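Database export, one record per block. Field names are fixed; values are copied verbatim from the stored entry.
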Amino acid sequence: MERPSRCSSSEAISKSIHKRLDLYALAACTGGVSLLALSSPAEGEIVYTPTNQKIGFNHPFELDLNNDGIGDFQIVNKHGYNIGRNGAFEGILGVKPMLPPNRAVSSSHYAAALPLGASIGAATRFPANSDILMAWGYYIVFSTQCCGSFGPWRNVENRYLGIKFTIDGETHYGWARFNVKFSDGWFIAAKLTGYAYETEANKTITAGQTTGTPSTKDGVPTSELNVRENLNAPPVNSLGVLALGSVGRSIWRSE
């Protein structure tokens, strides 16, 4: 009876050891990858939607930031004739949050027309306003005072509405970009040219940001002071010229 050679026996042991080591290494690598994947949280990203949407007269537009079929904000471009002591044509542009937690960067009267690079996040001012003016104008038919227009969104291009809204109960920040043009003192043409939001909850975004790199103006992030520019224009209901106290309240009523 032949005995296996010492050499062949050693080769068999060596192959067995190598096989076990390979299986161990594979298991270790697989486990390591799994643990690494579990320990690394998914990073947020910016979801940007370009558009060329006109805001129709007396037809509110619903802005759906995350395109889930549920409107987050309503943009109103209302024009009409106010039958009053003087008689006046009026145009009013405004924004209305469609859900209670949703907010827009604003003062007590006007939504801010943010420049490129303005920071939009937890440190930004989001008053609990349900109806927020962007701009308004009037033309008095029977008066020497003629017409006037007011608000930070008067005749602007590529300005940003800073907003926050909720997804599954968590706060997300975003922006909507508009061009606004007045004609004849009161007639408003408004167009939405794009909007974006940050998918990571509670993460700051900058106005105009479409990728993970914050947008800047001339290479420098815009300061909080710039965010508040032009917010001190006179509110509609403080002007005695037209006795428009009812206009600011009635603009949001259904036609």
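Remark 1: The chain has a mean pLDDT of 75.
Remark 2: Residues 7-40 form one domain.
End of record.
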